[in-house]
Request: fold
Amino acid sequence: MGMAAADLQFHVLAVDDSLIDRKLIERLFKISSCQVTTVDSGSKALEFLGLQEEHDDQNNPNQPCVSPSNQQEVEVNLIITDYCMPGMTGYDLLKKIKESSSLRNIPVVIMSSENVPSRISRCLEEGAEEFFLKPVRLSDVNKLKPHMMKTKCKSQLQEPEKLVTEEKQESIEIAHVVPSQPQKESDTTQQQQQQQLQANSNNNKRKAMEENLSPDRTRSRFSSLTTV
Reply:
């Protein structure tokens, strides 16, 4: 797979306590050329995302938390979670994600087999992008691509901003360093001027001495003495 294709591939985190529903979601998103990671609880989803959760799964403490591997440092472009799950519900997971400064921009989609308007409204008000009724269909998955694309655009924009900030910092550092250079040049010029003045003074003294010792002055002095 080329670099361009890898950059455009979306990574989806699917959360559902039902194995059948997890397999269905995984198959639908892979049809849409997405990478999919599945977990069976909200606490495991938070662990995969790097958030510490106070209450661990007491029933299966030794069970691997995520698939394909634990605590992957990868970009997640979408989280799709079931609403009704033991322990932490999909709504609770949604709230924790939106409360996190590092995760709040990840789109979250809630799915449920029960059509309860108050539940749907509460999830949408908390920040969910969509609320799907099970079984989820391929047409539902296709609706989510614009939401995933937003996360790609934001991650691509952050890198140029970082480069611009570094360039500004370098410019500031250069601006502080450059003024010392003219100071050195002015000191050198001043030294040259002093040396020139000293040389001129020495030349003037030498000329004066030569004038005092010239034959004309000596001859005139002796002439005056003879006349007297």
